[in-house]
Amino acid sequence: MTWEPQPDGLSQIITLLKQSQSTDNMIQRAVQMKLEELNQYPDFNNYLIYVLTKLTSEDEPTRSLSGLILKNNIRIHGTQLQPAIIEYIKQECLMALGDPSPLIRATAGILITTIANKGGLQTWPELLPTLCDMLDSQDYSVCEGAFGALQKICEDSADALDSSELNRPLNIMIPKFLQFFRHSSPKIRSNAIACINQFIINRTQALMVHIDTFIDNLFHLSSDDDREVRKNVCRGLVMLLDVRMDRLMPHMNNIIEYMLIRTQDSDETSLEACEFWLTLAEQTICKEVLTPHLPRLVPVLVRGMKYCDIDIIILKGDVEEDEMIPDREEDIKPRFHKSRTHTQKPSAAASGSGDGGVRSMEGNDDDEDIDDPYDEMDDDSNLSDWNLRKCSAAALDVLANVFKDDFLPILLPILKETLFHEEWVIKESGILALGAIAEGCMNGMVPHLPELIPYLIVCLSDKKALVRSITCWTLSRYAHWVVSQPHDQYLKPLMKELLKRILDANKRVQEAACSAFATLEEEACTELVPYLGFILDTLVFAFRKYQHKNLLILYDAIGTLADSVGHHLNKPEYISMLMPPLIEKWNNLKDEDKDLFPLLECLSSVATALHSGFLPYSEPVYRRCISLIQQTLNQDLASTTSPGQFEQPDKDFMIVALDLLSGLAEGLDCYIESLVSSSNIMQLLYQCMQDSMPEVRQSSFALLGDLTKACFQHVHPHIADFLPILGHNLNPEYISVCNNATWAIGEISIKLMEDTKPYIPMVLPPLIEIINNINTPKTLLENTAITIGRLGLVCPVEVAPSLQQFVRQWCSSLRNIRDNEEKDSAFRGMCQMITVNPVGVVPDFIFFCDAAASWMTPKNDLHEMLQKILHGFKMQVGEENWSRFVEQFPPQLSERLAVMYRI
User: Carries keyword Repeat (predicted)?
Assistant: First the structure.
């Protein structure tokens, strides 16, 4: 296709492109509107590609901008563009890859990958062969331009390149890339490694057959003069650690030596190399291969934690007082709400592993996202999120977890030197290192803590704000130890100083202190009750003092306090301090303001803690939650029925409102009845329970369970609608949704009693499947066991025939939770089922014995039921068989059963 622009059209577009580089917001807006208007004309995109590829009389930034506008058009309107125009753009882009200007070549590469992503590589079959041929061009610009485009394609479409639909182009591409590892141009060497690096993690077969050549070539380039090349070599080696340790093992000493040098580079290679230590720590051979190198590695990591001059400038490290300066909105990271999940607390007997029970093997609950403490440290949007300092600290942390106290002989002398250093930057890095090793080396550090904790408490009032803020973080890492000591010694002085820091004149220190205090609250729980008035004084004062960003963290500290001290907060004097500022914020925030999220989360914790103390505030809070849910559902409906006219809603508003209603139901209990009866909450809940978004369903099931407990008379009429939806969501693919649905079914069954019978065939089979699935996380296992027990309690005749299918898993999962109402009802159900079907428990009776022994203090009648079953079994099998049976028990279990059940 040949196409020529009209001179008028061309000059109009050039003017627009020039104007769009203006910093004036008004001009920017006008340009935006004009661009939208021009999008109505089909050949507008031809003009854009023409400016990028042909109009060499224009300056490069203007030409590149033209390409970037075209890229957005293709991304948004690509499917509506005429095929002829797309063909013309494709052909021009490929030509422009050889442009003399690196900026134009890169822009053409971006356009090519956008088209390939939008339509799929299969709609442009000649693209990859053409790019691979261009690599062989004698013209350097063509080769480099093609490599740039290929690198972007490898990044975006790694899976597609290895697919049979495309005939596995990687079989040709990888050997081709390997030829360029020794090219004379560093840019091309770097591109070649970067392309292949994309295929390491997925163990792509096309790379695995050439793995030795690849590794040899990486070693060859390890001492390359070019920074980008070395950076990509480090990145490749780090990924190979995870994937082909077998191939790296023979060279491991040399690789470690190499990475030690690279971690000390003065450019960003050091960050790539530092990732190596993080990855190595996860490998089983870490201790064996790294031990000889530790004395050299540890000082390097501690040095890497020091702020460099540019960091201090960016972090305004010399500005001590900035509390009066308002936050810039762009500095406030979006916060994500974590929906409510119903979990069990482990029992005191089960948490220590010396109780001699029959242990079930369980992994971590995959559902829990563990916050990375190094994300919180130096939280500043100007500093790149992940840098050498954070990576070095994280590496020291994971290695401390591998080497435990063997780490300390090397580290303690370094800590002595840095912690008490004259220069604040070095002292600060020492305090960070001390925090980083807290988890791994806790045992070995305990003898030093009586000296170190008071020293750190003094550092909380250091004249440098950056020292004060890191000290908050480090102290929070030792909070567990502090709380376990006599309060007067460490907890009281620490609390006093931390509360002063919450009111620091520096915003970064306020933030660090607030976060550290929240950690202390979680560790201390009700130990904080004597100091509540003092704590609330400070937190309420901070409301008047804080700028926008830290207010959001303050909500979190107040919510955590409520979670930690619970009903102890329900005193008139505390309520009158805490509630007015919270309600004032609540009244000032508009319905569409995202600051509602942390405030609603905070109120949810406060409502749960205050119980009836929250009553005076409950009505407006309840009404607003209902209104937020209604608005979101209405907007969702509008955007689904006429997508062009209405934007999709942010469903987080609805999720947070559902969770706050759960907090209200849990806190107010039966007092919520009047609010429920005068609202359409059941209709709203019915809609939310069927929402396409898992988090909405998760929160609506939590609320359903809480309303069932608080005011079942309002839930009852809707059971026939609700239970099938719950049954349908017993799908462990969405763990938290499944967990809350399971819990809600259990709560409903307890209220419905024998009327649960018609629903048993619908819910029991999926629950049995979940309890028998080896991948089911612990929380879900426990809730499933409780719900099965409750179903057995209300409908023993219907559930008992299946006993054999779940009794072993049931006993194993419930031995680990502490005595509570849920465990009580579940065990009563198990006793009922055993009475109906005693044969069902016989093959797994040892597990039942173990579960019965996990109780600390069962209620009298439950104790009697358990005792009766144990003695009945002993009678049934006879003295001799019983003795043989008991010989299999761990000694602690025999003792516990003898003491508890006289058997």
Answer: yes
Check whether 315 has a pLDDT greater than 60. yes
The amino acid occupying position 357 is G
* Sequence-ordered list of residues with C-beta below 8 angstroms from that of 401, at least 6 positions apart, any chain: 281, 439, 440
How far apart are the C-alpha atoms of 781 and 531, rounded to whole Å?
Answer: 38
3-state secondary structure of 762: helix
Sign, CA torsion 50/55/56/61 = negative
Whether residue 358 has pLDDT greater than 80: no
Strand, coil or helix: 572: helix
Q: Could you give the angle at which helices 186-197 and 140-156 cross, rounded to 10 degrees?
A: 20
Residue 593 one-letter amino acid: D
Buried (b) or exposed (e) across 239-272, using 16+ Cβ within 10 A? bbbebbeeebeeebeebbebbbebbebeeebbbb
Helix (H, G, I), strand (E, B), or coil: what is residue 187? helix
431, part of any domain: yes
Is a pLDDT exceeding 50 seen at residue 572?
yes
- The residues near 255 (Cβ < 8 Å, ≥ 6 apart) are 237, 248
In a domain? residue 261: yes
List all residues 6 or more positions away from 617 whose beta carbon is below 8 Å from its beta carbon.
579, 583
Confidence class of residue 242 from pLDDT cuts 50, 70 and 90?
A: confident
Q: Which two tokens stand for residue 682?
A: 């059941």
> Residue 329: inside a domain, yes or no?
no
As a whole number of angstroms, the distance between CA 691 and CA 701 comes to 11
The more confidently predicted of residues 725 and 881 is 725
Q: Note the pLDDT tens digit of each residue in 16-43.
A: 777 777 777 787 787 777 777 777 777 7
Q: What tokens were used for 345? A: 């607390």
Contacts of 282 (CB under 8 A, 6+ apart): 242, 398
pLDDT per position as a tens digit, 856-874: 999 999 999 999 999 999 9
In contact, 765 and 756? CB cutoff 8 Å: no
User: What is the pTM assigned to this prediction?
Assistant: 0.79
Total domains in the fold of the chain: 1
Average pLDDT over residues 644-657: 91
Confirm whether 279 is domain-assigned: yes
